Amino acid sequence: MYRKDRGTIRDARGGGVLIYINANYVPLINGNLNSFKCETLWIKIITGMNGFFNLGVCYRSPNAPPEQVVNLFMVIKEASKHQAVIVGDFNFPGINWNTLEYNTVNEEVFIKIVQDCFCRAMLCIARLLPARSVCPSVRLSRS
Q1: CB 25 within 8 A of CB 64
Q2: Which residue, of 34, 59, 91, 115, has the greatest Cβ tally within 10 A?
Q3: Alpha-carbon distance 39 to 41, whole Å?
Q4: Cβ–Cβ < 8 Å for 42, 30
Q5: Nearest to 72 by CA among 39, 32, 101, 96
Q6: Strands 120-122 and 84-89
């Protein structure tokens, strides 16, 4: 189990991010990515002799200060320079992933980062999908 409590990022009680790793994997804390001041936690999963991928969990509070949002965007860009699996709650409710329409500047920037990093967005909103349903997948292409 790896965790990063919210209190390490800013003065706040409760919250943070957590990753459980199966004992069959070889995980290493990614100190470079974890140095960004935002609610993210990054683990390198070793896949072979010189191979690895970055596993990251992210949380963006709806009222996150601007510097945390900037750091979140920077760490996603940095993590995406290698193979990466990035999951989390980014709290961008105004993004329409079918049309790529958005309501805020931060949502626009987030869409651009996802596109620029050739990320594949897996959209699964538990409240809206019945139990055991398959999450729809959207492939974002570069504009």
Answers
A1: no
A2: 59
A3: 7
A4: yes
A5: 39
A6: unpaired
Residue type, 74: M
Q: How far apart are CA 80 and CA 15, in angstroms?
A: 25
Ramachandran category for residue 69: left, alpha or beta (phi over 0 → left; psi -120 to 50 → alpha)? alpha
Please tell me the distance from the alpha carbon of residue 121 to that of residue 13, in angstroms, as a whole number: 31
Distance between CA 62 and CA 15 in Å, rounded?
13
The full length of the chain comes to 143
CA angle 109, 45, 48 (to 5 degrees): 125
CA distance 70 to 101: 21
Show the DSSP H helices in the chain as ranges: 31-34, 66-79, 105-116
Interval 13-38: pLDDT, tens: 667 888 999 888 999 999 999 999 99
Q: Where are the domains of the chain?
A: 2-139
Distance CA 85, CA 73 (A): 15
Two structure tokens written together for 94: 């105004």
For residue 44, how many other CB atoms are within 10 A of its CB? 18
pLDDT in tens, 78-87: 999 998 989 8
